Amino acid sequence: GDGPSLVRVGVGVHVLNLADIDLANGKFYADFEISLHKEVDEDGKEVLYYPEAINDPLLAECGNLRNWVPYVPRGSAELADAGLGLVNVDRLRTVSPVVSQSPEGNRTLDHIRVQSYFFFRTNVTWWPLNVEAL
């Protein structure tokens, strides 16, 4: 339709471990949690934006979401990697949705934990990489 159709989604990343950085082979190990949340109004209804809003600098940061709820990508239970679309990642990885339960018994997605090796192309243009000016 011609109406507003975009949902603003905030993404939080909490790095638990970054290790085994290998410049020769261009890989590193990362263990992190991703939290997703979407903007809602005071009544809990999804706030929708027109496609032009993507260029609005005031909406670029999600640090100002007054009201939000956890965001679960549609169909993510059936999708690989919980619908995250991870790139440059090892095929032997663990992607685990972590749910929380309210006192009433409602279960909601709290965050997604990712544990894997990631790959990168080493750039040695500025070798050595650890040059410091004092």
Verbal overview:
By secondary structure, this protein is mainly β. Helices cover 0% and strands 41% of the residues. Strands 2, 3, 5, 6 and 7 form a 5-stranded antiparallel beta sheet that branches. A hairpin with a 5-residue loop joins strand 6 and strand 7. The mean pLDDT is 82.
Name its key features.
two-stranded antiparallel ribbon, mainly beta, 41% strand, single chain, five-stranded antiparallel sheet, 134 residues, globular
Shape: globular
- Biggest beta sheet attributes: 5 strands, antiparallel
Whole-angstrom Rg: 19 Å
According to DSSP, the number of beta strands is 7
State the share of residues found in helices, binned by percent: under 10%
Q: Kindly, what is the distance between the CA atoms of the first and last residues, rounded to a whole number of angstroms?
A: 58 Å
Strand content: 35-45%
Q: In terms of per-residue confidence, which ranges show pLDDT below 50 for 5 or more consecutive residues?
A: none
Q: How many separate helices?
A: 0
Secondary-structure element pattern, one letter each: EEEEEEE
Topology at a glance:
Layout: E1 6-7, E2 9-22, E3 27-39, E4 48-49, E5 68-70, E6 94-101, E7 107-119
Antiparallel strand pairs: 1-4, 2-3, 3-5, 3-7, 6-7
